[in-house]
Amino acid sequence: MCCKLPEIQVLSKPAGQMCTHCNIGVGCDAYEYRPDDCRQFRCIWITSPLSDRFRPDKMGILFEMHKAHKTVIGLVEEGASWKSGRPMRLIMQMVNDGYTVWVVDGTERNLFLPSGETKQNALAKAQTIWGEAWQHRPMLKT
Ligand code: SF4
Fold first, then answer.
1. Is pLDDT at 80 greater than 60 in this prediction?
2. CB of 66 shorter than 6 A to ligand 1
């Protein structure tokens, strides 16, 4: 899912479309030359002790951690249900731990703020993380 859901501008890869370098079941056929976006990607499931039940392909949502900004961005697979059950429990746990959580579901952005955080600051951090790509995402719903 990390090679499908994110938009990767340097590869001209749109969000939700499998990267042409992805050799399914084998790996990345451009691994040594993969762009910085791929090198820096931090999947929460890979970098934390979450159980197999929280694997992105089992939940239909891929969470990317931006620790320096205390921000998590969740990318939802088309048609996946994330507003209840395990995905929502994980979101609320991250919010309780002080993280701002964005959930991008198609053209919709959903924002979950931890105590003491403001929408304005959350937006500023998102723009820092995503740069110009942020401007292309049309709707904000909180
Ligand atoms: S370049 Fe490789 S690591 Fe990056 S999205 Fe494509 S297949 Fe995945």
1. yes
2. no
Interval between CA 93 and ligand 1 midpoint (Å): 29
- Can you list the alpha helix ranges (DSSP code H) found in 1-118? 36-40, 44-47, 56-59, 85-96
Instruction: Indicate the pLDDT class of residue 135, thresholds 50, 70 and 90.
Output: low
Q: Which of 4, 9, 38, 46 to mutate to test the pocket of ligand 1 (most atoms within 8 A of CB)?
A: 38
How does DSSP classify residue 84?
Answer: S
The pTM (predicted TM-score) of the whole model is: 0.86
Question: First and final CA of the chain: distance in angstroms?
Answer: 25
Domain ranges of the chain: 1-40, 42-141
Contact present, 5 and 13 (Cβ < 8 Å):
no
CB 43 near ligand 1, within 6 Å = no
Task: For 29, list phi and psi in degrees, rounded to 5.
Answer: -85, 0
pLDDT per residue over 20-37, tens digit each? 999 988 999 999 999 998
